[in-house]
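Reagents: none. Just compute today. beta-N-acetylhexosaminidase.
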Amino acid sequence: MEAAACADTAIRMETWRTEDRQVSCILSAKCDAPISNYTLCFSMLAPCEVVEGANIHRMTAGYIELQFDNDKLGTGQALAFTLKYKSNMNPANRSWLPKGAYLRMEDGSILPVQITPRGIDQTYSTKLPEQHADPSSDELMLVPAPQSWQPTGATLDVSAGYKLDRSWDTEGEADSTEAVEALADRNNIGPFLAEDGVPLHFTRNAGLAEDAYELTIAPDGITLTASAAAGAFYGAITLLNLKQIYGGTIPCGQIADVPRFEWRGQHLDCARHYYEPETLLRLVDMMALLKLNRFHWHFCDDEAFRLEVESYPELWKKSGMRGEGRVVPGIYGAADGPQGGTYSKAFAKRLVEHAKALHIEVLPEIEIPAHSWAVLQIHPELRETADESNEVSVHGYLNNTINPALPEAWAYMEALAKEVSGIFPFAHLHLGCDERPPAAWTKSPAIEKLKAEQGLETADDVQGWMMDKLGAYVSSLGVRPAAWEEAAKGANGGINNDAILFSWTQQGPGLEAARKGYSVVMTPAAHAYWDIAPSGEFNEIGLNWAGITSLADSVNWDPVPENEPELEGKIIGAQGCLWSEVVLRDANMESMMAPRILGISEIGWSTRANKPDAEQITQKAACYSKLFAAIGWRQNVRD
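Predicted 3D structure written out:
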């Protein structure tokens, strides 16, 4: 059927969850004349098989193309088919239903398909009621909880803002308070500094740590004490938070505060979903409000390489956009596209500067050796042509692993490591190294030769050798390497080279690495992955491989076991992560993080004794719901 004749055609795909990991669908149309000779294209969260009613024409991870034995479709006609998720995956909520459907006609033209899911309550909401904290209560509703709070029972009206005493020798403290003023202004929660505000005095105490501060809040004014710009900044952030969550009248008392951990991070996956640059800047602002200080930027994965690099320009030019006829098809709801984008070096510099003003460092990640499907579509020379391993990743990608036995692979990894680390002044580079498919390298002649030359026996040994060698190269650049927990595997002890390891499956691998001397950041999925659904409700969005991650779960853990206090020096912090498989638009990020991001703020800053329990974090979240709303952070977006 000609595309022009289909101008008034309305195609609909009704879909719902059934038993035994199955999803049922009915495809129907309203049109003047029947249509046929088409392919139905859409995406699921993971690979599926057809139970009945259709035939798989093509499948790339969760992107599926179906054809039908009798595909005639017109008014009064419908086609029913049923899919089943592979690998025991359970379609627990609305995220697991089909997304981004369209028909590709025989002549190459495209017809959109409207997906209509059954069983979804569009009024479903888990947004907490917005309320201001009570200044007469002795319990301080601040996130994160300070090390010490001694209330006096009095209150202070700061609704007009704070009048800054500029008489001290600045050394950066004025810049810190002015950065908080700019943060408040651009997020519509000002004024912070005001000529008619409450007097705010600064005193210096060289005995305090650089990021420590003290506040004395009295009816006649406030004194902020710090030894350096970081402490002044965090003290000012506390005052901004108090002004907002208490509605302008704050409790008086004394705060003595310093973070428990040096690494208090938030990660964002910009490969599965492209976030607009302004969204990243808004996230960094939110991090600053919660005293988080490390932004882990994940801009490349199986689905895309999004950062502009000169060493391999085809990466971002060809994989940044996905959809019909592109290197990366309409994965994760992209439909026929084009959907996506790339981040320029100029924006990377802007992001770094924006974060730096808020005492946040940016950690870039280049993902190797696995999670490289898009890279390998563009640069197949990074995989041995004689390799018949045919590994399939956990996400369903065939052959997504770079081969470290090839000189081309080393040219790629070293060039990328050098260029990317040169863009970011933090002098840390995350090298990935998670979820290598079990079959990877098992039928590679080049790998077998490498094993013989290097005395390696297993694929883990090969990976450990590779990460150690690459880690040494990164270190030679004056950059500290980092990687996911799997980088510690291998007979040689893994990556070594003073690398930081991120423990994500659970805390066990991180504890084992810390005992071996590695510096470790804890980011266990069951407590700190915001892409895991917060409940078992079908109306929610999110994954479920780690169970559920509720607001209570976000604080119901500690990075350091009580019976191993000696690990406190090796476990350097905690981090929240948001992987973007279920993200359809930027607002989903806000709803998936809030209010659970409050939990990682508490874990990273507060002591074990001061950390809130489930009831207390819920009370705090209700107060911060008011702050989220004030800055336009959306908490209830699921479509």
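Residues 459-476 form the longest helix (18 residues).
Action item: order primers for follow-up constructs.
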